[in-house]
Amino acid sequence: MFDTFGLRNVMKTAKVMGKKLRFLLIIMKKMESLLAGLADQFLNIRERRYVPDMQTQQMERIGIYSLEDVLPYIVASKRDVNSKRVYDGNLVNVHSLRLQLFKSKGVECIICGIKGSFFSLERPLHCKQLPKVYHFNLYALEDGGSIHNPLTWRLITQDHIIPKSKGGKDNLSNLQVMCTVCNCEKDNKIIT
Fold this sequence. Notes:
By secondary structure, this protein is an alpha+beta fold. Helix content is 35%, strand content 22%. It contains 5 helices and 7 strands. It has a 5-stranded antiparallel beta sheet. A two-stranded antiparallel ribbon has the order 2-3. A hairpin with a 2-residue loop joins β2 and β3.
């Protein structure tokens, strides 16, 4: 007599395995699309193509200033009588640690070498503060970029040499100048 019980078990196992395989295929397709998106992001970083960040697009800008219009007026303390300066009719803080970094260590990304070329006086669009509080952001232009096209701007910012997540402090000796692309790529690694 043929082993019917064994054949039934094989059939049940095959049915269960088929369901598991279909489930795995669905997961694999989702992972494939996720990995494709990550690969695109990686290529954008590696090829240094500009991918507009949300911060650049969600700002209200009221003025563009040269480095010479801002850097000489940056002070080290908010207690300094010159810690606020009027630009476009707005009182602007010129004592932030980030601005002090640009004044003392320069405006060039230590990784890719892109150089900040202008300041934009701006505030986030979602800012609910009254009166409106504006601040300076430093931007570089991508190759072939235009000061009239914010999609070709790259934000220059500060990076913690020893990341705050690893005990790094908020002081000038622990800060370096980086563009947002390099800063995102660096993440919380220690690179000097």
